[in-house]
Design a protein that fits this description.
The complex is a heterodimer of chains A (about 250) and B (about 1200). Chain A has about 250 residues and is mainly α. Chain A has helices at about 1-20, 25-35, 45-50, 110-135, 160-165, 170-180, 195-210, 215-220; strands at about 135-140, 150. Among the domains of chain B are: about 20-90 and about 125-255, Immunoglobulin-like (Sandwich), CATH 2.60.40; about 260-360, Neutral Protease, domain 2 (Orthogonal Bundle); about 370-420 and about 425-525, Orthogonal Bundle (Neutral Protease, domain 2), CATH 1.10.390; about 535-635, no CATH class.
Chain lengths: ~250, ~1200
């Protein structure tokens, strides 16, 4: 009963305090509570000052078992200036600092090549076997279809595209080698952009021809910047006065 | 000597004008071609042509034009409706009922059929009658405008449609169409005078989908939208007079690239390939510059276009101001091997622009001049671009090819002259085809013809010097360009045609030299020279006694008389001697310049002035001769077999600087497997300065020598240590360096050496284990990551090397090949092949070179009994839709399988493909491969050789291939290879009906048989030349004219067609015409068409046409034709029921009233008859085929 009484006091006091938008109950809250519960508050100081009151001694202070300190490795890093100091400390360095480790590099060329070769071969074999397993296959031996599975030949609708265009891998490789050999960069890729320079180059080479063919030089010099090619001209609108555009 | 050049030129011009007499009675001046609808879905084309012609003779009453496949709706002349007949005897060369299966017969009939429509004989498939209202007009030689409306539906030749089966509009799908064909084949896609000698100006109009581009000849004047804006019309003008055969067209959603160096040059390619196009054509301007410079003549046309198309008929086709190439020539900068090949193709096509397109030829027999000149200047370009070594190597290669071909088949004649046109005068009687027309030539012959032509041009150059040669070309070109700018009225256009005589005259005018003997030897005569040489050194006289023999009796050889250069390398230097080869002198004494004095250490001077130290210990102490060469400059078309000691060959290999000499010595050293030869070859292999092709040849020779020396060979396998030294890592010799192909010479060597090494064999005739491991290691350690170039060709060659290492399986009592008894080495090989082939599916290589090599290797494994022989894999790769190189490789394997396993099923499969495959090149190639690797030959017993096969092939060449000359000639080649010239041995001997069959041009009555019997003879009835004389016309006012269609399918029934349209010719034909008609007038046979047996044939009164011609007079008498009433049946029956008419019977009746001809025939017949009676004697009453029933039914045999 006492317990429920005390807890009721606590609960109500908390409610009063919250009612007045506070978090910590004050003395007045408790007083109001007690009044509400029908307790005569005025008797309380007298009761407290009675002569034969019992004093309960504080429980003996037991030594708190010291939590074993986490194993620290190295000095914790101080906070950088943008982190407020009240934030927790950094964890131990080993949890976030990477220590580059070097295995003894394989410097033996032979082994390297060997490795690269066998790795590539394994990848290729695995890949092709997978493809063969998941798709249609052909076989060279009637009785055995799994030892040398050949991915079935599949006709293309436009066969020349795959045959002529370099694969993406090769393109990539070419870019790599090209960038490594800038001097080898040919003008073929950039031709349309450098027409004027090309022209002057062509002119120089042509001088011998040009001398014999003045008309030729005219046609070649004339349009340095504007290419006059009939295929680049805009398509004309049909003439209306004609009955048909043909004949 | 330019001043003198002009004077004779003028003289020549006048003569030239006289020199060219057009075989046609009119002159074409202008032609309009307008194609206003192209349907890719249906593969059809609709359009019209308009020809402007001037008659050159009065009373021209009919005009013959060429047209094949086209459906002609309407013909108008000067806006008047004109009657016309469409008759093409080449559709079916021999009548389908004929049981004749003799190739000789076919070839003659085919030649006759071709000449019956040959525009150069004044003939054509389409015969138009000039309306009578215009006769007066014609007599005044006034202009005629012939307007022809036509359409083409699913053309089988001439125009090739490529329509990929993917989603999207036609443009998105990359559908395109282009003209193609062999020689003059323009008639396949529009009516024209399909001759190289009829020049005119052109207006070309093509209306295509707005997303497409139409590329054609001449200048693009304008592009105009149609009214609905969904299509556009391309207007082209070609003002330079051009032959119809040089007109071309390509339509597709092409990407356009204007050449950055020359803006008047435009390149076209299919979608997505633009980067490749940029790279591929970036070189073209240099070729232009080269030709313009050496010819001192500007490129004749105002523009040039290159179009790269898929499924091309040939790799390179040159037409006026445009060339059509195969799209497979395109390549990126990473590809090494294809680059020179593509550049060659570009250069070749450009050379043909000058000679072939701009300058055309007068007649077929002048073709060699054009091919010769274009091939020759192309050679000059090669020399400049790839260097003298490459050029000389190429000349040697071409020379070897032509020599081998001529010795095999009996000669290539460059300038055939046909006197009288009789078979007896046939200059090429050793061949199984006629060389009278380009369309009857075997493709191989034609390639060799071109090869010989340019070699002969080179011989002429040797004779008159290159300077004069180029002057002659310049003269031809400048004459032509003057003429081309003239109006038609000036009659100058024939200056643009070259003839043999005109060309020779130019040469003699310019150079003042007489080259007649040279022309006589190499141009007017076929055959090559075969020399055998040997020598002895006479120490006393210090004289070299050289003996040179000739073989001029065997096939394809001729006797050579004249100068012959011999080069002798002595200790004191190199000396040239010119010997006179005469009739009976075999021995030639050549004084030597140096005494044999080998003690003095002195450098030895070579031909090129270089002085070298030689180790002379190997040579004969008494003789100062190091080596001898006969005809070192290849100035005779010859084969030389020369005997000299092995050490001489070795010296020649090491020290002679000419690559041809080096190659000859390599070939000779194969016969001397000694350590000294081995050393010489190895030294050459290591020599960086040596020409890479010589080094490659040395690899193979070394492999052969090593095999011959197998028991005494010491050290590692040949070339292995060399390869290791050159291409492997210093530290670990078994690992190849990462690829770096910057040096092309070592690249080629690196590719070749393993292939040659794989040919090594040990004492058990197996490939040494060491070599196989070596090659497998090369594959394993191949690393291309750092390479600027693709290694696809290199890897492909590694697979070839694996295939080369395969030796026949040891078969234990013929067990079935299974996986369990697979040889472990083969297992390794197979593993590699499987991996490569599968990787290709994921990462395809350029042109699928690796797949191609894998397929070949698998076939090798099959053939050697390691893997069960099975064609299914190859057949799946041969399907349409694979890249063409793969298909060809797979088909080659199937062809080989057919031969080895004698499989009837596969042969049928191949034959079906020949008929049905969408790609003309593949069809041609199958025939070619079957001919090269035939399942059986004529003297061989084979279960495949059956009557059904004979019939099938016969049908193929008779009618199945009429849309493609090249294919038909290919079929003829195959037939010849399988069965020979005479009747195939597997056929039953001729039945009675056949005995009566008279062979070509011998339609003379068998004395024992009464005339009516002949009437049943189907062959005589279809004798093609007779068609030429079947000239009849529709009545221009006949009722159903406008709706009339002449279906291609029915045309072979045209005899029937004609017979129903026969009207008497109101006018006698002109003398000019009859002159050009084939002299061999035969009985003209009117086939009677009896649809679906409406009345019993026997009961039918014979009707026929009697053609009376008085051969003696030039004037042709009017044709007298008596017709049975049946003939009046409406045309519609025949024109619109192709199917029924095709299968219905024909009965042929004829009366022969030509006395003069008869005599001739009789004479021939005697001979023929003898032959046939022989057959008859053997087995007189064979009676088997279903057709015999038919012949019995026919009225002719009823008695």
């Amino acid at each position: 009963m006492l317990q429920s009484y005390i807890s009721e006091i606590g609960r109500s006091a908390k409610s009063y305090c919250e009612h007045t938008a506070r978090t910590q109950p004050t003395l007045s809250d408790i007083v109001v509570t007690l009044v509400e519960m029908g307790f005569n508050v005025d008797t309380l100081p007298a009761y407290a000052k009675r002569s034969q009151r019992m004093v309960i001694t504080a429980p003996p202070v037991t030594n708190q078992p010291v939590a074993p300190k986490a194993l620290t490795a190295g000095q914790n890093r101080p906070h950088p200036p943008h982190i407020p100091s009240h934030f927790p400390e950094f964890p131990d360095p080993h949890t976030y600092i990477k220590t580059p480790t070097y295995r003894e590099p394989v410097s033996d060329y032979q082994v390297l090549r060997e490795k690269a070769a066998s790795q590539r071969r394994d990848v290729e074999r695995a890949l092709t076997r997978f493809m063969a397993k998941t798709g249609e296959t052909q076989s060279l031996f009637k009785d055995d279809v799994s030892t040398f599975p050949l991915i079935a030949a599949r006709p293309f609708s436009i066969p020349y595209l795959t045959a002529l265009l370099p694969s993406e891998l090769e393109m990539q490789q070419m870019e790599e080698t090209d960038s490594s050999e800038q001097d080898e960069q040919t003008d073929t890729e950039n031709l349309p952009l450098h027409i004027s320079t090309d022209d002057s180059g062509a002119e120089k080479e042509n001088t011998s021809v040009l001398q014999q063919n003045p008309s030729l030089s005219g046609s070649r010099n004339g349009d340095e910047n504007i290419i006059d090619n009939p295929y680049l001209r805009p398509v004309k609108k049909p003439k209306i006065r004609r009955k048909k555009s043909l004949s | 000597m330019p001043p003198t050049g002009l004077e004779p030129a003028r003289m020549n011009r006048k003569k030239g004008d006289k020199g060219f007499e057009s075989p046609r009675p009119y002159k074409l001046t202008h032609q309009v071609v307008c194609i206003n609808n192209i349907n890719f879905q249906r593969k059809s084309v609709v359009g019209f042509v308009e020809l402007t012609i001037f008659p050159t003779v009065a009373n021209l009453n009919r005009i013959k034009l060429n047209s094949k496949q086209c459906r002609i709706y309407r013909v108008r002349i000067n806006d008047l409706e004109a009657a016309f007949i469409y008759n093409d005897p080449t559709l079916e060369v021999c009548h389908s009922e004929s049981k004749q299966r003799n190739l000789n017969y076919f070839s003659n009939a085919y030649a006759a059929a071709v000449s019956a429509v040959d525009p150069d004989a004044g003939n054509g498939e389409l015969c138009i009658k000039v309306p009578s209202e215009l006769w007066k007009h014609v007599d005044e030689l006034k202009v005629l405008k012939i307007h022809i409306n036509f359409s083409l539906d699913q053309p089988k030749g001439g125009l090739h449609f490529v329509v990929p089966s993917v989603e999207g509009s036609m443009a998105e799908r990359g559908a395109h169409v282009f003209s193609c064909g062999y020689q003059n084949s323009t008639r396949f896609w529009f009516p024209c005078v399909d001759s190289y000698s009829e020049l005119c100006t052109w207006k070309l109009e093509f209306t295509v989908d707005a997303a497409m581009v139409a590329v054609s000849n001449g200048d693009l004047v304008e592009t105009v939208y149609t009214h609905d804006m969904r299509k556009k019309t391309f207007h082209y003008m070609l003002t330079i007079p051009t032959a119809a055969s040089n007109i071309s067209l390509a339509i597709g959603p092409f990407e356009i690239l204007v050449d950055p160096y020359m803006h008047e040059v435009t390149h076209f390619c299919l979608p997505q390939l633009l980067p490749l196009l940029k790279h591929t054509t970036s070189y073209l301007h240099e070729v232009f510059e080269f030709y313009e410079e050496i010819l001192t003549c500007r490129y004749p046309y105002s523009c040039f276009k290159t179009v790269f198309v898929d499924e091309a008929y040939v790799e390179v086709a040159a037409y006026a101001s445009m060339s059509i190439f195969s799209t497979n020539l395109l390549h990126s900068a990473m590809i090494i091997d294809e680059t020179p090949l593509t550049r060659r193709c570009l250069a070749q096509s450009l050379a043909q622009q000058f000679f072939g397109c701009f300058i055309s030829r007068m007649s077929w027999s002048d073709e060699w001049v054009l091919k010769g000149i274009s091939g020759y200047i192309y050679g000059l370009w090669m020399k400049k671009t790839f260097g003298v070594n490459e050029y000389r190597h190429w000349i040697k290669e071409e020379l070897d090819k032509i020599v081998a071909y001529e010795l095999k088949t009996g000669g290539v004649l460059l300038h055939p002259i046909f006197g009288g046109g009789k078979e007896k005068d046939n200059p090429a009687s050793h061949l199984h085809f006629s060389i009278k027309h380009p369309h009857t030539l075997s493709w191989e012959y034609y390639t060799m013809f071109q090869c010989k032509a340019h070699l002969v041009m080179r011989l002429i150059e040797n004779r008159i010097s290159m300077e004069f040669m180029l002057q002659v070309f310049n003269k031809l070109l400048s004459l032509a360009s003057t003429a081309s700018s003239q109006k038609f009225q000036s009659h100058m256009w024939s200056q643009m045609l070259v003839s043999t005589s005109g060309f020779l005259k130019s040469i003699s005018n310019v150079s003042g030299k007489d080259i007649q003997p040279l022309i006589k030897q190499w141009v007017d005569q076929s055959g090559v020279v075969k020399f055998y040489g040997s020598f002895a050194f006479n120490r006393k006289r210090n004289v070299l006694e050289l003996e040179i023999k000739q073989d001029y009796t065997s096939l394809g050889t001729q006797k050579y008389v004249g100068p012959l250069k011999v080069t002798v390398q002595e200790l004191d230097g190199s000396f040239n001697h010119t010997l006179q080869i005469e009739e009976n002198s075999l021995k030639h004494d050549i004084p030597c310049h140096s005494k044999s004095r080998r003690n003095k250490k002195k450098k030895i001077p070579l031909m090129n002035g270089e002085e070298v130290d030689m180790d002379l210990s190997a040579m004969d102490a008494d003789s100062p001769l190091l080596w001898i060469r006969i005809d070192p400059d290849m100035s005779v078309l010859r084969k030389v077999e020369f005997e000299q000691a092995d050490f001489m060959w070795q010296y020649q290999l090491r020290y002679e600087r000419d690559v041809v000499a080096q190659q000859e010595s390599i070939l000779a050293l194969e016969k001397f497997p000694t350590p000294a030869s081995r050393l010489a070859l190895t030294d050459i292999l290591e020599q960086e300065q040596c020409f890479y092709r010589v080094r490659m040849a040395a690899c193979f020779c070394l492999a052969k020598i090593a095999n011959s020396m197998v028991s005494t060979w010491t050290g590692p396998p040949a070339m292995k240590s060399l390869f290791t030294r050159m291409f492997c890592c210093k530290t670990c010799p078994n690992i190849v360096k990462t690829n770096n192909f910057m040096s092309f010479q070592s690249y080629f060597l690196q590719k070749t050496m393993p292939v040659a090494m794989a040919l090594l064999r040990d004492v058990h005739n197996l490939c040494p284990k060491e070599v196989l491991t070596f090659i497998l290691d090369l594959i394993k350690y191949n690393d291309n990551r750092k390479n600027k170039f693709s290694d696809n060709y290199y890897r492909a060659e590694m697979i070839d090397a694996l295939a080369n290492s395969v030796t026949p399986a040891v078969s234990v009592n013929n067990e079935v090949r299974t996986l369990d008894n697979l040889n472990p080495d083969v297992r390794l090989i197979l593993e590699e092949i499987t991996r490569f082939l599968n990787m290709e599916k994921l990462l395809p290589s350029y042109r699928h070179t690796i797949t191609v090599s894998c397929l070949r290797a698998i076939r090798v494994l099959q053939k050697n009994g390691h893997v069960p022989s099975d064609p299914t894999l190859f057949k799946s790769y041969a399907e349409y839709g694979h890249f063409v190189d793969i298909r060809i490789a797979a088909l080659e394997a199937v062809v080989d399988y057919t031969k080895v396993d004698r499989s009837y099923e596969e042969l049928q499969w191949l034959l079906n493909m020949i008929q049905d495959d969408p790609v003309p090149y593949v069809r041609h190639k199958i025939l070619n491969m079957l001919t090269k690797n035939p399942p059986f030959t004529k003297n061989m017993e084979s279960p495949l050789c059956t009557e059904a096969l004979v019939d099938q092939l016969w049908k193929l060449m008779n009618s199945g291939t009429s849309h493609d000359w090249r294919l038909r000639c290919g079929a003829v080649d195959l037939y010849f290879t399988l069965f020979g010239l005479s009747r195939p041995s597997c056929l039953p001997l001729p039945e009675l009906g056949l005995v009566l069959n008279l062979k070509e041009k011998k339609a003379v009555l068998n004395p024992t048989i009464i005339p009516e019997a002949i009437a049943g003879n189907p062959e005589a009835a279809v004798n093609p030349s007779s068609h030429a004389q079947l000239v009849g016309f529709q009545n221009p006012f006949s009722s159903s004219q406008d709706e009339e269609e002449i279906d291609m399918d029915t045309v072979h029934d045209s005899q029937a067609f004609i017979s129903h349209h026969l009207n008497m010719l109101e006018r006698p034909s002109t003398p000019g015409l009859s002159k050009y008609r084939p002299a061999c007038a035969r009985p003209v046979l009117m086939p009677q068409h009896s649809p679906a047996g409406d009345c019993p044939p026997a009961a039918k009164p014979p009707w026929g046409m009697e053609l009376a011609r008085k051969g003696a007079g030039k004037e042709q008498t009017p044709l007298e034709m008596s017709m049975h009433p049946v003939a009046a049946a409406p045309l519609a029956v025949f024109a619109k029921e192709p199917a029924s008419s095709k299968h219905s019977d024909h009965h042929h009746h004829h009366h022969h009233e030509h006395k003069k001809k008869k005599k001739k025939h009789k004479h021939k017949h005697k001979h023929k008859h003898k032959h046939e009676s022989k057959e008859k004697d053997k087995e007189p009453f064979t009676f088997s085929s279903p057709a015999s029933g038919r012949s019995v039914r026919s009225p002719s045999l009823s008695d």
